[in-house]
Amino acid sequence: MEADPECLAFVPNATTGVNTILRSLKFEPGDELLTTNQEYNACRNALNFVAERTGARVVVAEVPYPIAAPIQVIEPILQAITSRTRLALLDHVTSQTGLVLPIAAIVQVLRKRGIDTLIDGAHAPGMVALNLTEIGATYYTANCHKWLSSPKGAAFLYVQPDRQAEIHPLAISHGANSPRCDRSRFRLEFDWTGTDDPTAYLSVPEAIKFMGSLLPGGWAELMAHNRAKALAARKILCDALQVALPSPDEMIGALATVPLADGSYTQLQDALLAKFGIEVPIVPFPQEPSRLVRISAQIYNSLEQYEYLAQCLREEGGEQASPFVNSPGNFLGEC
Question: What is the structure's pLDDT at 315?
């Protein structure tokens, strides 16, 4: 990941990062806050919360899934823009469908129209190459506990230099009136928001170093390895379930989703864990009874695990005992 460190602050998670920006900005009645139908539920709730209290309006661009090409993300967003659009809240990697959105292209288009962007990059660090300067988002937040494999409770918030004066942490603390002049007010406010345990934050450099040491080619090889495994696993599932690939390869990182027959997502997810020892999200999308199976690929996963998942999904929760029950590597869900 590449970014100016003076533009970064630690936060506990990406949802906190999104809330920090939305609660700092001032919106007026009639302002429009743009997002998509695939925005992460927690962050969409934060957007709704702010809109309801300021009189702003949430506008939702409908991004299709299955999807044929990245342009099908860009076009609905462009069509949803009006003269009242103030901010766009967008995922870099969608949680429900596992799509890597063409975020740099979207940010560029919106910036030309004078629209600020808040990017929820929860899954991006360690899954895709990430250069925040090149992406150019006004605000970007992401987790370190997913693909970087730090402990939970470590995430970051990126704020462009010319916007830092208007952004404040959710907990206002000593930094708001600190007399120190050896760092920016942004740094003073975010670096100390009250008594807390910074262990998760302090672990991030070691997590990056460790994960980058697992393959000879470092992080570049690890990300390529995981992506190739996700693509192979997706094909295994699609072939077994006799469904077409729901998105182009170029929109896949280390997450992938495959449509399933309609039914209860909770019953199937619970059955996969209880009967077969498989931990994998079954996602209601766009809403019940439609559902997807969402797989993750990390270096500790094997293709045999995805083959077994495909078998269990075909059998719709049969009673066969799993050879992977109690195996620590039988985790095909979110990192």
Answer: 86
